[in-house]
Amino acid sequence: LGTAGKGEALSEQWPTEMPFASVVERARTLDHTALSLLYRRYLPVVYRYVLGRIGDVHLAEDVTSETFIGMVDTIERVRAGDELGFAAWLLGIARHKVAEHYRRQAARPLMQPPGEPWDEPLAQAEAGDPLGVVTARESWAEVVAALQRLTEEQRTVVLYRCVLGYGTEEVARLLDRQPGAIRALQFRALTALARFLAVGGTNPAVAALRAELGGPARAARAQRNDDAPRR
Amino acid sequence: MHPEDRLDALLTARRRDDGEGRRGSAALDAAGDDALAPLLESAYRLEPLRAAQPDRRFAQALEARLVARATERRRARPVTVPLARTAQRELLGLRLRLPVIGRSALRPALVAAVAVLALGLGTLTVAAAAAGPGSPLFGLHRLEQNVQVNVAGDSAARARGHLQLARQWLGAVQSAATQRLGDPTYSDALQALRDEAAAAASEIAQVPPGAARTSLEADLAALQADEMTTLQAALAPIGWQDRVATTDALGALGAAVPRVSGATLTASYYHWQVTLTGSGFAPGAVLLVNGRPAGTVTATSAGRLTAELRRDEHEQVPTSLGVGNPDGTAAVTSNIQVPRSIRPEGTPESCGGSGGTATPGTGGGTATPGTGGGTATPGTGGGTATPGRCPGE
Q1: What ipTM does the predicted assembly reach?
Q2: What is d(CA A42, CA B62) in angstroms, rounded to the nearest whole number?
Q3: CB-CB: which of B11, B54, B73 is closest to A162?
Q4: What pLDDT is stored for residue A16 in this prediction?
Q5: CA distance B155 to chain A (A)
Q6: Mean pLDDT, residues B336-347
Q7: pLDDT of the residue at A79
Q8: Measured at the alpha carbon of residue B179, what is the angle toward residues B248 and A14, in degrees to the nearest 5?
Q9: Is the minimum CB–CB distance between A198 and chain B shorter than 8 Å?
């Protein structure tokens, strides 16, 4: 795993000889090559955004799929002439699909079986270290839970800025806001996130697994964490 | 500086550090700033997400779904021809004059219907004349071109017409390849080029021996030489499906290209063992599964390629298997022999050709055994086709 700024967030470099606007124009006629180019370019961007919003790899794949299917279904109407405009349009679809996902989830009982470790993107990286995996899962679950407690605007700004790697001016264009407003939102969002992460609880399933792997001392610590009051 | 601006500057610096492979300078900047340090730390805790990558198999499967969805939508989309501006003006004028022309209530409606039909056909013809490869009206455009060439008086004139059109489509093939415009733009242009070159050759054969025929034969040879060069250069930037069609065209021109005559699949616990037979397989060739490189080639000779495919990645029997040579040429077959032991009940031993039946209509249909079964092009009299099915379909 490496770090990824805006340019690095893209799995495939855009062929310089191909003007973006002409590829979008071809994609609007449902040309396969143009659609594939756009898909490969924006898959990591959409996937990271959705994963940050949902936190579960499998559900994130489902919502990412719905986003790109939505892209094909509505691309004839897109008016974006540059990469940022297209990203704004596509991330708008992703935001809508994430909201739909949460509406669906709210309409049915909780499906997460108790005791099942949460899916997160770190397990693969630390697969050789069971305790490391537990720690990473715990940390990841806390981050996702904290993100969920932000307002929609705050969450979007933090994800666009800190995960997708867009600059402040770019986020302002993506959300049709002033850069100053984005900086203020970002400050409030990270202040809230810091507060939530500092007092965040521990997933009971992870605490149990940690206790099982870490012996009595760790178990006692995990128990203390579980007993701590939560807000 | 406001704390919002300082935080933004520190985050930007951190991003720049990451981009330049440096670590920690932004954190050091914030070290003395107790108020901002927790905010930066919370931002850093999102970092694992910045490197999250979707699963490769998920990504490939989703891309295939998108392409299928696009094809489905393209088929379902009605062909709409916008009325030319002049036609719109005329239609508007007609509507304005209708009360003057008509004596009965029916007559204006009838006149309008005839006028709209005439305008519609005229507009369609105008639109078709401008339709390029990949356009829904491209078939109409080609029909129009053929009519224009075939009204010429003799074979020599028709041959010249076809040669001229072939040159035009050769340019379109080159342009589509350079711009990486795949199916249908590239494939339409390539098909038009091949049709015009074949028509030119056919007409030249009808021209009596003499100076005119010699000159036309020289033009055709020059066209074919340019075609060979252009198609070989086009192989690199185009997709595998277009490479297969291009390789077929190169083979027809006499170039050395791979050909696949058959494929056999056997199953072990973890893998499919794939054996391709044919000719022209080059060292370093890759296996193509359903039109995409996949699997691991274990041995290659000029007439035989063996490879392994992971069964967890390819649960279904592929509908096509093929070979892609390092020079970009590619060939596929749907004639896949599947041993009885791993075939689902009722599946034919060979997934190619024999799985389908076709009954051409009286107008002269053609039947071509194709992907995963037979395909049929019924004639004008009406034919029926029953495609065969493979387990992977």
Answers
A1: 0.74
A2: 13
A3: B11
A4: 61
A5: 38
A6: 59
A7: 83
A8: 120
A9: yes
